Amino acid sequence: MVENKGWEFTLNTQNIVHKDWKWTTNFNISFPKNKLLSYPGLEEGTQSSFYVIGEPLNIVKTYQYKGINPQTGFYEFTDFNNDGKINAQDKVLVQNLNPKFYGGIQNTISYKNFTLDFILFQKTKEL
């Protein structure tokens, strides 16, 4: 079961309205959120490497970076299951890949029978 929720706002304006000229603007912004509430049999299946109960659907599990070993020059990661190896079971940190928000601005400019539309779009994600 997945919970989807969020907010979306839209603003429409008529900036210029004359006999031959017309300019309108449409602005929208969305703040989407989702969360996996339940998944029967998740731990027994291969999907457990992609999904975590209580987290968004669009995640990636990563290793915990400890630094660079000064003797070898290799990257080091935390061995969470203490088996002496860094493997898939040590990927426990969850990174949310969903954008914090997205939105856009559309402008329509008309002169007599000619119309020009242009759109500006923004999506943001911070890791």
**What kind of sheet is the major sheet?**
4 strands, antiparallel
Per the principal axes of the C-alpha atoms, what is the gross shape? elongated
- Fraction of residues in helix: under 10%
Number of strands: 8
Order of helices and strands: EEEEEEEE
**Rg (C-alpha, Å):** 24 Å
Instruction: Quickly count the helices.
Output: 0
Classify the secondary structure makeup into a structural class. mainly beta
Strand content: over 45%
Mean pLDDT: 91
Outline the low-pLDDT stretches: none
Distance between the termini: 26 Å
Major beta sheet, strand line-up: 1-2-7-8
Describe the structure.
This protein has 127 residues and is mainly beta. The protein contains no helices and 8 strands. It has strands spanning 2-17, 21-36, 59-62, 65-68, 75-77, 93-96, 101-111, 114-124. The protein has a 4-stranded antiparallel β-sheet, with no helix packed on it. The chain has a two-stranded antiparallel ribbon with strand order 3-6. The chain is elongated, with a radius of gyration of 24 Å. The protein starts with a strand and ends with a strand. The model has no long low-confidence stretch (mean pLDDT 91).
